Amino acid sequence: MDTSRRIRISLLSLWLFSFLVLGRLFYWQILKTDELASAAAKQHLDVLEIPAQRGQFFASDNFPFVTNQEVYLLYVSLSEIGKDFESVAQELAPILVDEQMNDLVKTATASGITAEEVQELIKIKEEEIKQQFLRQDVSWLPIQHKISREAKEKIEAMRIGGLGFEREQKRTYPEGTASAHLMGFVGSDVNGKPKGYFGLEGFYDLELQGHPGYLKREKDASGKPILLGISQREDKRDGRSLLTSLDRTLQFIVENRLKQALAKYGAISGSVLIIDPGNGAVLAMVSLPTYDPSIYSEFDEKIFLNPAVASSYEPGSTFKVLIMAAAVNEGVIGPETQCTSCGGPVEIAGYTINTWNNQYYPNSTATDILVHSDNLGMVFVGRQLGIKKLHAYLKKFGLGQLTGIDLQEEDTVSLRLEKEWREIDLATASFGQGIAVTPIQMLRAVSVIANGGKLVKPFIVKGVIDQGKTTMIEPEMGKTVLKGSTAKTLTEMMVAAVERGEAKWTKPTGFLVAGKTGTAQIPVAGHYDRDKTIASFIGFAPAQQPRFAMLVTLREPTSSPWGSETAAPLWFDIAKELFTYYGISPTK
Amino acid sequence: MNKKRPKKFFYVVSIFFSLVLFLALVQIYVSHRLATAGKVVAELENEVLRTREENQKLCEGIDQKGSLSVISQKAQALGFRPLADIVYLTSGVSVALND
Fold first, then answer.
1. Stretch A550-577: mean pLDDT, rounded?
2. Which of A178, A265, A583, B69 maximizes the CB count within 10 A of its CB?
3. Contacts of A70 in chain B (CB under 8 A)
């Protein structure tokens, strides 16, 4: 081989080598730059998320209704777990099953579980964990969410390499489940982030969420922070907390009384709503049966809807006070106006209308019509009013429209258009049949009588707490529906209905209460079922200067179908406790 | 003149090396302090976390013990009973009567 050839080969080799070096450099510096930069950053940069706390709910006395508890996500780094994963699974399984048992205890399903069944559950869990450890497609796996501090401490004490914890939050309910329908619950959205559903959690979800912060800083080989290194910090912003108008003492009283009443009267469900009729502040709202929001997934989703705002019912005789108020306000009748068609059953469009007890009171006055809860008397009043005015007043009382209460699931049935009303609709609506309302709509409408004629907007949140500063929300007062004199007259008529009506036996002596009983048959497949009723009582007290307006509804009571024998005694039982609580003395 | 030059040169070089030595020592000292401070910061952060967890635990305890159902159960255990009948004193009723 001659010299020039050797030189050429050497040069070519050098060029080739240089090209390979350049190619490799291009690969590392250009193509792999992001990957390497991120690997380097991972080695010397620590990025910590500072989780934001979800806002809490406070009762009117600032005691928390819903608060946060710190819990943990247990995860495993599969590359670090080692070959002895079977014994790790064996050690973890009893602790994790124990955590699940705590939830089962809440649903009362744990009471029937035997020791053998618990062992079986542990075996299943152990197998589940082993299968997770064998996965090849991931390097990091969550094992169990929301485990308690105690369980975390137990697992930490085992000193198992490859296991780690991340902080999470769990909602807790110090006052139990009585307010579940009001509060709603926190589940997950499609991305697995916490999201509020139903009640206040759903309505105020964005306000409650907050924004997490982060801390990015350099660390040394042992993971300790380097003080003079890069450091970036974005502070978290906790979610806003809500100060509610709810009185937890009232919630407690109402829950206990309602529980007792459901058992005593054999009703399948019931609701009690109490509001301040002066401004619409909700003081208590309990519906039973309820659910436990901390383990909401164990319940049928139908139970999540708050019946007080999302379920419509036929109000029956409680509705008579609204029709009477409209007629008095329009001046078509007065409290002493006599009924000229109350002597016997009335035929309208082929339908016969009777009184509820087949007793007839010819020439009874408007006040007596309420006292006797006389359907024929109300047909007379309705006819005096006419379809046009009656329909206009239903709208003025806010029926067929959302009340605007701050609960996510509020729903309403629309009012039929005026032109669709027939004579029979006018007649039946006059005594509360053939028309559907939600309990909150009904109570809001009756509050118009209690507060002198104004339609209020019911609300639960009266203030928003942001970074320790409370901003109060002014209640919204609606339009004037009734004249002050009409409200006064109707109050007197409702007082008479309590003093002399069917529920007089249960009324506490000495207190002036304005109220009305109601018994509505439940429409089933196009007809009314005589045996199934919704018993209710609506009223406010003290009648002269109301401190509260309350609606009690009991669905399908079996001890008696009548509101005067079921809902009314419950109303007065609660009212007696409220008189003591508010320091209201008898007036006579 | 020529004899003085090496002396000055030696003087400058010794100052330079002294400075380098001093700065090296300062760097060692600062590095040492920083390494120790990082450890202290990490310890303080852990302490903050522990205190925060402890605080959270206490808050949860307060919330639980302050709930009305718990208070009610404790009151019942102590022998308190709900009011059965309340007598309201009005102006027409004598509070104390002489025999």
1. 94
2. A178
3. 53, 56
Average pLDDT over residues A315-339: 94
pLDDT above 90 (res A530): no
**Distance from C-alpha of A84 to C-alpha of A63, rounded to nearest angstrom:** 49
Single-letter residue type at A471: T
Assigned fold of A71-172: Alpha-Beta Plaits (3.30.70)
3-state secondary structure A386-449: HHHHHHHHHHHCCCCCCCCCCCCCCCCCCCCCHHHCCHHHHHHHHCCCCCCECHHHHHHHHHHH
C-alpha A374/C-alpha A358 separation (Å) is 10
Domain ranges of chain A: 71-172, 248-582
For chain A, give the number of residues. 588
* Chain B 17-56, residues with CB within 8 Å of chain A CB atoms: 34-35, 37-39, 41-42, 53, 56
Per-window interface: A 481-540 vs B, CB < 8 A: 510
Domain A248-582 of CATH type 2.40.50.1020: no
Answer whether A96's CB lies under 8 Å from A144's CB: yes
Give the pLDDT of residue A119. 83
pLDDT attached to residue A526: 67
Cis peptide before A345 (omega within 30 of 0): no
CA-based nearest distance B46→chain A, Å: 12
CA distance A311 to A314: 10
The model's confidence at residue B1, banded by pLDDT at 50, 70 and 90, is: very low
pLDDT of amino acid A290 = 93
Digit-coded pLDDT (tens) for A462-480:
999 998 899 999 998 889 9
